[in-house]
Amino acid sequence: MSSKELKSITSGRMSSTELKSITSVLRRCAAAAPCNLLVFGITHETLLWNSLNHNGRTVFVDESSYLVSKLEENHPGIEACDVQYTTKVSELYDLMEHYKEQMKNECWPVQNLLSSDCKLAINDLPNHIYDVPWDVILIDGPRGYFPAALGRMAAIFTAGVLARSKRDGAADTHVFMHEIYREVERSCSDEFLCRENLLETKDSLGHFVVGKMEANRFEFCPNSDSSFPESNSSN
């Protein structure tokens, strides 16, 4: 991918502190076993994530089929796929109401996303992606910078389900949320990743550790209230 194309990517660059936080986890993960890394968003840091996880499996998911095709064309070893997001930033509260109405029906925390009718579920990725026990999930897309833009609600919900639906014996999942203090990211992280799972924040990066859950549970965060901490920085 050329420098000109990288400049066209709208997600903000990460700070050195944020990069260090993710890098540390990826290195520990790779040292223990081949690491499975799922990244929502093609950003300025894409090639860095791929290189850090060179012995593991890394998959990038982005709403731009153009960026996906250019990434794979210029870097044949990279695995990427495009997704058709349907959730806009302005629809946050309507989607959260849908979730609350369907939390005992279609929007369960442990489920087969491929057959889900929950409006927050991403179910059009390649089938094999849902079978991978992801060790690390980074949410840095879609861009979500203004009301009409595609929001990250579905990416956050899907990450929460993937982490809780892992097969027996799989380790907890590290989930990183970039720009966590924006409204969509804050609200959905509180609801689907859970404040009790928040290990730390570094600048605008939230680091959650999410464990597996029993299939008969319907609350993502049984021990959490509805508020998100204003700041939990540990720089």
UniProtKB/TrEMBL annotation:
Location in or out of the cell: Golgi apparatus membrane
Main location: Golgi
InterPro entries in the record: IRX15/GXM/AGM (IPR006514)
Signal peptide: none
Bilayer disposition of the protein: Single-pass membrane protein
Biological process (GO), any one: cell wall organization or biogenesis
Domain of life: Eukaryota
Annotated Gene Ontology cellular component terms: Golgi membrane
Keyword Membrane found: yes
Keywords: Membrane, Transmembrane, Transmembrane helix
PANTHER family: OS11G0490100 PROTEIN
Protein name: Protein IRX15-LIKE
Taxonomic classification: Eukaryota, Viridiplantae, Streptophyta, Embryophyta, Tracheophyta
